[in-house]
Amino acid sequence: MQYFIFCKERILLVAGKIPTQLNSAWLLTAPKSELEFHFGDETCCAIEVSEPLSLSESEDWVDLRATFDVLSLREHQAAGKARELLYWDDQTRFCSHCGTPLEAGILFSKRCPQCGKEHWTVITPAIIVAVHRNDEILLTRSHTMRGNYMGLVAGFVEPGESLEECVRREVREETNLEITNIRYFGSQPWPYPSVQMIGFHADYLSGEIEIQREELVKAGWYSRENLPEIPGKVSLARKLIDDWLSWEK
After folding, report:
1. What is the helix (H) or strand (E) element at residue 142, kind and residue range?
2. Most buried of 44, 150, 180, 223 (most Cβ within 10 A)?
C-alpha cells in the first residue's frame, strides 16, 4: 500500500518517493483525516496531519505541484486524488440540510444519520482556452498566479451555462475580445482543491484588449518568437500552448 501523507498542500516523500510503509514516528498526534481509496487496481491510504512532522534526512515535505517533476505520472495523479478526497472529507463533516455530524457512506459519500441525506464528492468545472490570432496566441497573467509566467484565460462554469458559453464569457469579461471556432482539446483534474479543467482552442474574432483589472495584471498577443515565461508542464495550460507551438505556421 502507498501512503499519501499531506499537511495542507505539501506531501511527504521518502527518498523522493511515496512511502509504502507507515512509520509511527510520522503520526505523533492523531491524523486530522485518514481514508483508504482505490487508484486503478491498487489500494492506497490518504492521511492529513495538522502540523509538519519532524523528519529524518531522507524525508521531505514537497509542494504537490512540484511532485510532477519527481514522481511517475501515475503516482502524481494518485497524489492528486488523495488531496481532493482529504479536502472533501474536511469540508463535509456536517449535514448541509440539518447540521448533524455525517457518517461514512458507500464509495466517496457520506450519509446523515438524522435526515438520511447523502453527500457525495463535488468537482467544480472550469474552462481554460488558448485564443489564436493569425500566428499569435493570447496570454494573460492573473493576480492569483504564483510565478512570474503568463498563462491562458480561465474561469469557473456558472449555473445554467454550457462550456462553450463559459469560454466566450470568460474571454469577453477578462479581455473584451470576441472569439469564434471554439473546439475541445482535453481535460485535467486539478486538485487545488477540487477542479476539473476543460481545455479549448478558439480563434480571435474582434475587439481590442481591455483587461479586467479585478482578475488580470496584464494580457497580450505573443508570437512563437517572443514567448514570455509560460506555465510548467504539469498544467493543462502548458499542454494547450505546446499543442499550438506544434502547429505548422
Report:
1. strand 136-142
2. 150
Cell triple for residue 56?
529524518
Instruction: Quote the pLDDT of residue 30.
Output: 60
Helix (H, G, I), strand (E, B) or coil at 78: helix
- Tens-place pLDDT, residues 16-63: 999 998 876 666 556 778 889 999 899 999 999 887 676 777 888 899
Domain definitions of the chain by residue range: 2-91, 93-122, 124-246
CB-based contact 173:156 (threshold 8 Å): no
Domain spanning 124-246: CATH 3.90.79.10: yes
How does 27-49 read in b/e, with b if 16+ C-beta sit within 10 Å?
eeeebebbbebebeeeebbbbbb
pLDDT tens column, 166-191: 999 999 999 999 999 999 999 999 99
